[in-house]
Specification:
The protein is mostly helical and 499 residues long. The chain has a domain of 230 residues. It is built from 17 helices and no strands.
């Protein structure tokens, strides 16, 4: 557990730094390109996700899982062979698919995405996907071996390079069209991925040299890789397609409901490019925890120690709720003011309360999904994710024309509830855990609600008294920490920690 804690803390620090840099990057980006171009950029990104799902997602899970098992058994040669086999499979998939996407970029932009201004971005996504796949395979090989420092360093540099490259290109080249702006953003991503892929490749080779040569104790076949990669990749692809369809449908269904196309694209850009990233700012802990948890659970499973993972999962769920519930509650209070000041758009605060609840549900879903991957139940986790995405898609299609973006927000909450609920049931059954509803969910949420109510009152009083918004947010955060801790103590958490 101590190694897991160390890795989680390191990746959390890295993730939070990356979140802060990425959030600052989004603020500068939104001010440079505006809400409508931000919407176009958000429209292109599902293509990126679909291509990664087709080529790399399943293989990265396979590399992390098999590397963890081989490393736990002392088979370093098997780890190297696993990575080589995975890279070969990836290039066999990615290169012909990329050529096809470039050839069909015009119909993809016009008929699938519904906007010809996305074509240049689609073409430039192809080298970006190839480089990202190489980077992620090396990164997950490190994670499988429990080596978190090299990918953490690479992740930190990646965010800085991406922000610097994209913003420099936009400022220096001054694109005159929305399509040119989207193309420059993706080009900056390509430059960033070149740096990351080269860095991780060199770091892993250095690690191999330090460990010395080692022959595989057992062979690693493509069949073993694909037995993990195909179910995960296939279900991930279906889920990504549902998510991509949802992103494409939001502006289209807004238009179907009578909204002007430019206004619909701008509203989509504000929601997905500004509000949701603001709420995602504290979630770096979740990604770090999942990256460390999956190989750790895989190692326990390889040793036949699955039931002993129950106590570990209990602590993971408690930590997730204790950290994310107050973060979402505080953002629900100060988020509208912070978002309007940073993005210079008053629409950022719309729907922030239900979106914060949906983000918390999404955190639970992600952690529980990572637990299923670590327990070797990738297919079940992916099926649950597909069910969650299907709920969102149905709500977007049926409700957005009548309710506007409120229909999407309702679907966002119901989708998170579905995914978290299904994953929880699956994890409880697989690990033999008895649910602790009060400790995992009720106590942290009640304490966060108590904190939010008092902070909302205090925040309104401070603003009414003429206190600057920045100081008011900082004072609310300090008060919130005290109130949240007091509420937890009042409900007996100190006794439980001693036990």
């Amino acid at each position: 557990m101590s190694s897991v804690l160390t890795g989680t803390l390191l990746l959390t620090a890295t993730g939070l730094f990356s979140q802060v840099v990425g959030f600052g990057y989004r603020i500068a980006l939104s001010r440079l390109i505006g809400a409508e171009t931000m919407g176009l950029y958000q429209l292109v990104m599902p293509v990126y996700s679909v291509l990664l799902s087709l080529t790399a997602v399943g293989l990265t899970v396979a590399v992390a899982t098999l590397s963890a098992r081989r490393y736990a058994l002392g088979d370093l040669g098997g780890v190297r062979l696993t990575l080589r086999r995975a890279l070969g499979c990836f290039f066999l998939l990615a290169l012909p698919l990329g050529a096809l996407v470039i050839a069909a970029s015009d119909p993809i932009s016009v008929y699938l995405l519904g906007d010809a201004r996305t074509r240049l971005g689609i073409v430039l996504l192809v080298p970006c996907v190839v480089l990202t796949g190489v980077e992620n395979l090396h990164k997950h090989c490190f994670y499988g071996m429990g080596q978190v420092r090299p990918p953490a360093a690479s992740e930190t540099a990646e965010q800085l390079v991406r922000a610097g490259a994209v913003l420099t290109l936009l400022v220096v080249l001054l694109p005159q069209s929305e399509e040119g702006a989207v193309g420059l953003i993706v080009l900056g991503m390509v430059l960033c991925e070149i740096c990351s892929a080269v860095t991780l490749t060199l770091l892993l080779r250095r690690f191999w040299r330090r460990e010395g040569p080692a022959a595989p104790k057992q062979t690693v076949t493509r069949r073993q890789l694909l037995s993990i990669a195909l179910p995960v990749g296939g279900t991930s692809l279906l889920g990504t397609l549902l998510g991509a369809a949802n992103s494409v449908l939001i502006p289209a269904r807004l238009v179907a409901g009578g909204t002007d196309p430019a206004r619909a694209m701008a509203g989509f850009g504000v929601l997905c490019g500004m509000t949701l990233p603001l709420l995602a700012l504290p979630t770096g802990f979740i990604g770090a925890l999942c990256l460390v948890m999956v190989p750790d659970l895989a190692r326990r499973t390889a040793r036949g120690d699955r039931r002993a993972a129950g106590g570990f999962l209990d602590r993971v769920l408690s930590a997730t709720s204790l950290l994310m519930a107050p973060a979402m509650a505080l953002l629900a209070v100060v988020g509208p003011t912070v978002g309007a000041a940073l993005f210079r758009d008053g629409r950022v605060g719309e729907y922030i309360l239900p979106l914060a609840a949906g983000t918390l549900l999404g955190c639970w879903q992600s952690v529980l999904g990572g637990a299923l991957n670590g327990l070797g139940l990738q297919g079940r986790g992916a099926r649950n994710a597909i069910a969650s995405d299907a709920v969102q898609l149905v709500c977007t299609w049926a409700l957005v024309p009548q309710w506007g973006l409120g229909g999407f927000v309702l679907g966002f909450v119901l989708s998170g509830l579905t995914g978290a609920g299904l994953n929880l049931i699956s994890v409880l059954r697989a690990a033999g855990l008895s649910p602790r509803w009060f400790g995992w969910f009720v106590r942290p949420v009640l304490s966060a609600v108590f904190m939010a109510l008092w902070c909302a009152l205090f925040f309104r009083v401070l603003l009414g008294a003429g206190c600057p918004a920045g100081w008011a947010c900082a004072l609310c955060a300090l008060l919130g920490l005290v109130l949240y801790a007091a509420a937890l103590l009042a409900q007996g958490i100190s006794y439980e920690i001693k036990q």
